[in-house]
Amino acid sequence: MYTFRTLIFVGIISLSTCRPETQFSMLPQEQQQTEPNVLLKCPDLPSKQQFNATAYFRDVWYVISSFNPQMRSNKSEDKTVCIKFTSQVLENGNVREFYTQLNDPLSYFFLEMIINSNEFQNGTGKFIAQTRPVDKEGNTEGPIYPVRTTIIDTDYSNYAVEHKCVPLSEDGLCVYLILSRKPYVLDTNVEPILNKLELKLQDFILMNKPGCAE
């Protein structure tokens, strides 16, 4: 297995070890591509129907809270991490998301995620993003790996609930995310969505680092 510095969502999967120097094992690409595919072991959750990629992938989404059922935490709040996605639909119809993670003390981690437009042809909010570690300017710093995302629900303008699955183990490592267009704002529509999934809001870790909007 090869290793990377802090990988996508590791910071929010395991906040206590969220530091750039942390090393995590990642399945080799050849193993990611073997059958059964690791991502096929991810939970098959309901997704947003008639999904509008143009409305969703614009401007900024802030990660308000996260929950990893495989690595439960006793924390209810974390003031050391800020995470946001800046996204756009490219001229060729593909989507580019730029992931920014700010950790204390003032260390950054960046990812670029490319989603092929063909992923949206079935009209549902379920897709695989080809993801790679990059620097602030978008220069590659590591190999590409897939991340499976399910947009469980969203109103496009205020909130979203996502589930992401990363091939960090033979069974995949998963995390639920609550997103908002504004930092620190938890929409009242989110909790009923979690209840339908038999999830509890109090199990989520609140991301509350000051200065996230900067």
From TrEMBL:
Keywords: Hemostasis impairing toxin, Secreted, Signal, Toxin. Its main location: secreted. GO terms for cellular component: cytoplasm; extracellular region. GO terms for biological process: lipid metabolic process; response to reactive oxygen species; symbiont-mediated perturbation of host defenses. Residues 1-18 form the signal peptide. One of its GO terms (molecular function) is toxin activity. It holds the Pfam family Triabin. It is found in: Secreted. Belongs to the calycin superfamily. Triabin family. This is Putative nitrophorin.
